[in-house]
Amino acid sequence: MRPARAALALALLALTGAGCAEAPPHESAAIELGTGSWRFEPLEDGQEVELVRGAQGGWHMWISVRVRGLEGDALPLRLTMQPADESAPPSETEIRLRLDPADDEGWRKLVGYTGIVNEPSCLVGELMRVRVSTPMDDGTTMASERDVRVLGGAYPPEPCAE
Amino acid sequence: MTRLTRLRTSALFVSALCALAFAPERASACGGFFCDSSQPVNQQAERIIFAQEADGSVTAVIQIQYQGPSERFAWMLPVAGSPEISVSSDAAFARLQGASNPVYRLNTRVEGSCGGNPASDRGGSAGGADAGAFGDDAGSMEPPVSVVDRGFVGPYDYIVISIDPEAPDVVEVGLEWLRDNGYDVPTMGADVLRPYLESGMNLLAFRLVKGNDAGSIRPVRLSFGPGLPSIPLRPTAIATQPDMGILVWVLGPSRAVPANYRDLELNEALINWLNPGSTYDAVVTRAANEANGQGFVTEMAGPAAPLADVIWSDAEATEWASIRADDWTGREGQLLFAVARFAQLDGVREVLQTHVTPPDGVPEDAFYDCVSCYLDGTEADLPGLEPTALLDAMQADVIDPMAETRALFLESPTMTRLYTTMSADEMTVDPIFDFNDTLGDYSNVHVADRIIECSPSIRRFEAPWRVELEGGETVRGLGNTWPFDASGEMPANARIRRVGTSGEGEVIEDNTAAIAEALTEHNASVPGAPTGGTAGACSASPGSSSAVGFGFALAFGLGVFALRRRRA
Fold first, then answer.
1. If 0-12 CB within 10 Å is exposed, 13-18 middle and 19+ buried, where does residue B407 land?
2. Which of A161, B1, B182, B369 is most buried, by CB atoms within 10 Å?
3. Quick count: other Cβ atoms within 10 Å of Cβ B395?
4. In the predicted model, what is the mean pLDDT of chain B?
5. What is the pTM of this model?
6. Is A119 part of the contact surface with chain B (CB cutoff 8 Å)?
7. Digit-coded pLDDT (tens) for B17-51
8. A with B: how many residue pairs have Cβ under 8 Å apart?
9. Taking a C-beta distance cutoff of 8 angstroms, is the pair B179, B21 a contact?
10. Minimal Cα–Cα distance from A117 to chain B, Å?
11. What CA–CA distance (Å, rounded) separates A100 from A34?
12. Mean pLDDT over residues B49-61, rounded?
């Protein structure tokens, strides 16, 4: 990535306040966190997101990510999930996946990643902080972060024992 | 030539973990994936049946492939809670696969008359080329590990352990505990299992009960709570083979779709219809690679019930019921002959080993390989053989697994067979399957017409032909050579979609126009049948004569695709 683009991205990061890069103008580097199993659905803070239960795979949340203005076929992404009140330590996963080809708006997507949710029972109804980030060439990190409210979904976990 | 590996691992999920300890070599039976072109389905594919019942609960039947010393066998799977565990049958998988394999059927007819042997001009099969159809103690348990369940099933000793997520290293704690308790699990990267175990999932591990060899390994059947069928694929990546096949049958309320993987529609022009087995797997691999290594081909979708009888037929059930109901007292020899009719099913040998003593002087292996070879069917009595015990064991270990697999298909409205190949670097997302109430059935039988364009001046094997595919595309060629293969530039996917729980999904890559363009260019390079000739009238097809305007002698194969690569 060119330094100018990186600088612009950093400026945008600063403007968003929470270190989240909103979708910037087309030519700018951007990363955006979303959800959806088969298509990217943007996420807003406070949005409700259902847990999905894989039969033997525990509970997860559909995580989708889209990026533009970033070079590389398989970007290194770091997915972090943590109760928004930080009552539990964050769960971090390194992802390096090849993205879909760019769409008409230049977005390249990772759709339908299974973000495993630790101890889901006590998270239902609570806010979960989900963050995805990728390192930039200049050593900085570009990230997108949302606090989403967790719903039990079609097969909710047992009620929280606490 | 067959080169057996010291260990061939498989079994999705974490069975692959067992291989790592032994530095596995890649299996290379029969020179590759396939033993012959008439059985071209990937013999080394991982095979799983998922059935989602009406209440959402999921049963998984998982075939385990393993070659190696039985004492080294260990197979692990992260699970939520403690599933019900039983054994299933390789025979059920074999029958199911045979009945649902993709079939590429080429109907051949001849236009005009070729020179040479008139008999060769008849329509129908042309040698083998047209036969395109294929398929036919827990001793020293210490915190933070606790035993949730343990038991014996079939040849296995299994255990489900729970590991305190607060443990310093949940993975290493769990694996170390298993090693201490006699499970030969390998050293592995902790990150492989960490996401599962830190989320509170348990670890299920199997090993073979002493006295069973690797040949006793059978599929396992796991019954889970409600959820969507999913494959915890990421741990498999540590020891998988390149382009490992993954074959999944999903049973449920409607057609299954790979919820978070891409849906691949193959470019059928790329499949060698003259010898489908020679290229099918390569085309699927190429198609999956074009989809970033994460896509499934739907090979068949339709009513599940017809396959039930394939797995365990009414006739077999009736025959077994008759045997079971009979009084075999004093006719034990005849009973063994009756049981031998089911010798092809898993577990029969083990039942016989338990209940029948070989005659004096007969080696055990030889006897159990062919009990009927060493017994007189009219023999009245066999010392020590208790008919009821033998029949009970047969019922539990041999018959029930077949009948239970059959029941899965009877109880589910729809079966969807999906296939892909994946390499380790692509196993980064666990595939999850959901159900789409909009998509219709999909036949595993693909039919195309091959028209041989004969002319008196050429013999049939020299004649050009055209194959008209179901989708309307035409592929022209000569002889027994299919003009395309998976190493070319023609896309392997006609379309790549993402599909949700309703609707047709969203096409994210449509190659149909590019494929049509490539075919047009190629077809123009293939000469038609020459007109005239020395043997009298010629009736080359209008299609062929209009397709080309230059001499037959022009080398076929000069057709060069100008198709740009669709992706880097």
1. middle
2. B182
3. 14
4. 79
5. 0.80
6. yes
7. 333 222 233 222 222 222 233 333 454 678 999 99
8. 124
9. no
10. 6
11. 15
12. 93
